Structure formats: structure tokens, C-alpha cells
């Protein structure tokens, strides 16, 4: 994933990372945008090689680059840094508690480039920046549904309006589970095979219940009843019960739902009066976790059944 249709302010990333101290902030610091999830350690650039240099990336200097620069004369360091700062990149971060060279500070001020220092190891800074950039720049979609966390499993409830998604989520909250989003769910592909869901900022922690109106779940049930985001581990589709329609009773064949090119386990649960959907969803979440751990009750039963037939036990 090289670039994104989205962007995030450099200031936002700096504030989220913490333990990064500014030595010089450019005049346009407040408006600098990052549009790629990659960073660059300019080792080759400091030697003068600028082919394929991507100036959209934050630049990071660690002990390796600093050790090389320490072998240069002040005049050579000045030339090396000037070649770098002539390019308009978002920022330069000197990591691992390394003291920036005077030539670096002088040229950051001369070319008005953002310069930061951090006591954190370079590899840790790289990992943290990339993780935050993946989150902010991830492909995303907003869908109609309800997202709840049940026993640590993120369950996305989908279905027509009025089918009972919010009412089911409310019952789950009363049973000790957590609400992430009601009505609108923002889904981000934070990794090639992992989705995270959250609520739009405006309606976060609010829930709409027909006949009652809008409630604030956090105010009524407390902080233990809500969560800002969670992985999406499975999709549950609620639909009205249709007499005569075939419904899978064993669960041997796994259904999937594809969202943002990620396949998720999926269940279709028919809704009719008298069914306790909260209990059913608790069971679905636990069963999904068991499957991820390698145990499938339906397959175990089918294998036992086939073995009994082979042994003429019927």
C-alpha cells in the first residue's frame, strides 16, 4: 500500500506519537499533509544519491546515519544536509537520542523544514509512524449497521431498518458487552486481511431506539459499555423469518461476506418473535472464536456421523 486517497496532518501524527520534541517548526507546519504510509531513512541521500527519492515521506535519521555523518568534516556534513533539505519533504526526525549536528539545525532553519528529535529507538519510531499512518490513510467505507464487541469478537450486525439491530445491541450491552457504533459504521482496512470499525465522530456512543428516541449509551451505562473501535471478526445478517425457507442447521459450509476486499465469516440469522437474539449472538461469537482456534463442532459431529456409518453403527 504505497499511497492513499486520504491524508492526515503531520501535526496529528506528531501529537499521537508523543516523545517527539520539535527543534524547528516550519511556517506551514499546521497544514502539512501526509499521503503515504511509508517513511524513509536517507542514508543513500546523505551520500548524494537521489534517484527515486520520494519527498512525500517523513525522513528519519538514526545511529547508522549519524555515525556516517560523524566521519565527515563540518563542510562535508553541511553539503550533505543541504542536498537533503533542498527537497521539500514533510519533516526530519532524529531518533535514538542522537544529538542533531549543528549543520542539520542550521539548514532546517534556512530551508524552513520541520525538524524533530526523539529519544526512542529508530525502529520503534518507524513502527509507530507506520502504524498511525496505516490507520489514518486506510481505505474505508461507511455502511448501515451496528457494531458490537461480544467476548472480544467484533460482530457487525446488518439487516433492513426495523429488523431489530439496535434493540439486540441494547440487550447485549445490558449483558455486559460493548457498543462501538449504531446505525452508521466506519470501516477501515488497516491491514490486507484486517478491518477495524468505529462510529462517525458526530454520533459516537449514541443509539436510536424506535419509540424512545436517541440515547447516549456512555451516559446511561457507563464507560464499560462502549469502545471507540474494534476489529471486525464476523458479520451477522438479520432477516425476517420465512416459513419454508431453508436455513443452515449444521453450519458445516462457511459463509463469507467481503468488505473492502477482506473476506469475513458470515451468518444469516432469521428473526421471529420469541427468539433471544442476544443469546444467539453470544453463542455465535464464542463459536467463531473456537473456529479461529481450530475447533469446529459441526465438522466434529459430521466426522463422528461418517465414522459411525462406516462402522455400521446405524
Describe this structure in words.
The protein has 314 residues and is α/β, with parallel strands linked by helices. Helix content is 33%, strand content 30%. The strands form four sheets. An eight-stranded mixed beta sheet has the order 13-10-9-7-8-14-16-15. Strands 2-6-5-4 form a four-stranded mixed beta sheet. It starts with a strand and ends with a helix. The mean pLDDT is 91.
- How far is the N terminus from the C terminus? 56 Å
Total number of helices: 10
Shape label:
elongated
Chain-averaged pLDDT: 91
Tally of extended strands?
A: 16
- Strand content is 25-35%
Helix content: 25-40%
Biggest sheet, spatial arrangement of strands: 13-10-9-7-8-14-16-15
The largest β sheet comes out as:
8 strands, mixed
Class inferred from helices and paired strands: alpha/beta
Query: Could you give the order of the helices and strands?
Result: EHEEHEHHEHEHEEHEEEEHEEEEHH
Q: Can you tell me the residue ranges where pLDDT is under 50 for at least 5 consecutive residues? A: none
Radius of gyration: 27 Å
